[in-house]
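During the reporting period the student researcher (J.K.) took over the structure-prediction task from the postdoctoral fellow and processed the backlog of single-chain submissions. One of the processed entries is reproduced below for the supervisory committee.
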Amino acid sequence: LGLCVSRASASVLNLNCCLVLLPMCRVLLAFLRGSQKVASRKTRRLLDKSKTFHVTCGVTICIFSVLHVAAHLVNALNFSENYNEDFLSLNAANYRGEVSQRYLMSVLVPGLTGVIMVLVLFLMCTASTYAIRVSNYDIFWYTHNLFFVFYMLLMLHVSGGVLKYQTNLEEHPPGCFNPNKTLRENTTVPKAFEESFPDYSTEPFPEDLPVPEPFVQNNFMRICSEEPKFQSHFPETWFWISGPLCLYCVERLYRYIRSNKPVTITSVMSHPSNVLEVRMIKDDFKARPGQYVILHCPRVSALESHPFTLTMCPTDTKATFGVHLKVVGDWTERFRDLLLLHSNQDTEVLPIFQQRRYPKVYVDGPFGSPFEESLKYEVSLCVAGGIGVTPFASVLNTLLDGWKCYKLRRLYFIWVCRDIESFRWFADLLCTLHSKLWQENRPDYINIQLYLSQTDGIQKIIGEKYQALNSRLLIGRPRWKLLFDEIAKCNRRKTIGVFCCGPNKISKILHKLSNSSNSYGTRFEYNKESFS
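J.K. obtained the following structure tokens:
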């Protein structure tokens, strides 16, 4: 049973160690998501579950690793208790009842690598918990990069060769009659046979002599022509992980070459509520609305990098792209201090020829996200919570450049914030887009609803500049059920894309409402931001 469990759990581990790398191939996922011919909408929605798939594979690896270790502990006892004198080469103990030192020595490399892999897996698993990721993201990032050590040890782990198989089944089938052994040890020799062959105990059994009748009656139907030979199993782990591991390494090399050229920072702006806007230019950089990039600043951290959603994408007329990042944690604080001359400075927008020397910043990407689909629905509902508005900002900027070339004909934009100052991040963008649509006689193209969950300082947004937003500012939280019913009533028998980037509480409510039925024949398809 121990061998069966250890082999079965090893097969499960091989499969999951193969699959767990695929969701991390961001370039491949971005290509599949952006290709209409390769992937349909349903397939692209499945790709959005890549993070969930990665986590599921990781949890499965942890569970079956424990089962695999427990099975091998049982094997160590079974090898000593089940000593077989007939097949000495298969024994992992020197005698029956011995603590299997030979087994432990034979699995010295697999055993040592297995212990280290379990330790690495424990660190990766515990550091991946939500509490550690929120309190100290650096621990999660550094421990998760131990996966390379894990895979190198996994390559060595399969070199033990304890389990063997027989190579000469035709010459020595299981249960065959071995005259030189079975005759002497397991059978009472007839007197007539002993008189004919007095030296049978010392001489080989004649091959041309017919088998005596007593042996045929004892079911020895086949004669062994040679002793059994055994050989260690060839490791199968290589077949499972070599392909995905090579694919991942090739992609990382491609991403390193692609992101090796630093970008040029054109402007840095500090917004209320500790939000920093960085605008950049990079040669041959192309991106679609809703995608994200990974920023790396060597002066902040030599190894650490973080994903940020693009809030402005390059177009045919302008090459500038930008991100908004909320200053939370050590990395963003150090990055802000390097970008701004003084951390309390509100804004710094300098012309290209007067630009001060910003630190070198490298951009990896862009990579795909579910929000690329927001322009491919006829009707879309976009819900943002706080800084979760960033993926929708790129969509709004794209619509500002021109909306007629997209399938989208109506956009419901819901933005929930705790303080009034947060709306100033993209207040100018919302007002400009609203004014543009009014001038083009399409005021119904976008439905903007701003919700303020806290009423402190509500008077600060009042002013002529944001008059268009003041009439759309509501106090409290959205009544999601009524909102969905109203949207379904106005868009009967249509498929509406629901996109959410915000707290999990809002996400769960929207997911539940999207899966519920309505009397108007309207179908809601739920999508959620998930950095892979």
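The committee noted the following: Residues 50-81 form the longest helix (32 residues).
J.K. will present the remaining backlog at the next meeting.
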